[in-house]
Specification:
single chain, 8-stranded antiparallel sheet, 3 helices, 246 residues, 5-stranded antiparallel sheet, alpha+beta, Jelly Rolls
């Protein structure tokens, strides 16, 4: 039987690649996350102060608004996602912790025509879970308005929706709050920025359903909230890091 006449350089290159792959996996310690593994933090993220608000397995760290327990139905963990079940009304859920200056990131996807939102500056001193809402909606066919995805719901619209992905696809969002400065990001694009208590914000509040909510539009320490708008929605890779006040 005649042996294949492979050039030595090709054989050596292939062998080197195999050894390198094996060596890399050997160095990967148990529990050390790969960059694309969901609901995990890399060592660099941990050193930068990031922490998970959802571990991908349990509902630990979340509870119902004004309750110390998590809803018994309507919110479940499924395949590494925190899922809001359709047509069940368990109510909103909030983070156990409160935050003032922070950077928050998460991934989400929606069912067709679904509507949901993430709120910040949530205080239980108010009678209802009112806060600044980062809107999430299957709204690609609608004109931009104050209810558009990544906008400050009912107060300020996003700049555009070019970075928005259709229902069923995964979106990545980010909120930055430092001092009075706030930014909303969507899939790597900054789509909104505003100053808390500014003339533009307070004018938007004055024409919204929040006009009679004391302190709305200004900065407060508060919880993170995921809304229950009846529709099906999924969340994962929810992580946050606290920032020094500007």
């Amino acid at each position: 039987m005649t042996k294949p006449n492979w050039p030595f350089s090709v054989t050596f290159f292939t062998l080197t690649r195999l050894l390198l792959v094996c060596f890399t996996w050997t160095l990967l310690l148990p529990g050390q996350a790969l960059a694309d593994e969901p609901n995990q933090l890399t060592e660099a993220e941990k050193k930068a102060g990031w922490k998970l608000l959802f571990d991908g397995k349990t509902t630990q760290g979340w509870r119902s608004f004004k309750k110390q327990t998590f809803p018994q139905q309507g919110w479940i963990v499924e395949d590494g996602w925190l899922k809001k079940v359709a047509n069940v009304r368990p109510g909103d859920i909030i983070s156990q912790e409160q935050f003032t200056d922070f950077e928050l990131e998460w991934e989400w996807r929606l069912a067709p025509k679904a509507n949901n939102g993430l709120k910040y500056f949530i205080t239980e001193e108010r009678s209802s879970p009112v806060g600044h809402e980062y809107q999430m909606w299957d709204d690609l066919e609608r004109p931009i308005n104050k209810s558009s995805t990544a906008g400050f719901y009912a107060v300020l619209p996003p700049l555009d929706k070019k970075s928005r992905k259709p229902a069923g696809e995964i979106n990545r969002s980010r909120i930055l709050v430092q001092g009075n400065h706030v930014e909303h990001w969507l899939n790597g694009e900054k789509v909104l920025e505003y100053e808390l208590g500014s003339e533009a914000v307070m004018a938007g509040v004055a024409t919204s359903k929040f006009k009679n909510v004391s302190g709305f539009g200004t900065k407060i320490k508060g919880h993170i909230l995921l809304t229950d708008h009846r529709d099906e929605a999924w969340y994962r890779n929810i992580k946050i890091r606290e920032l020094p006040a500007r």
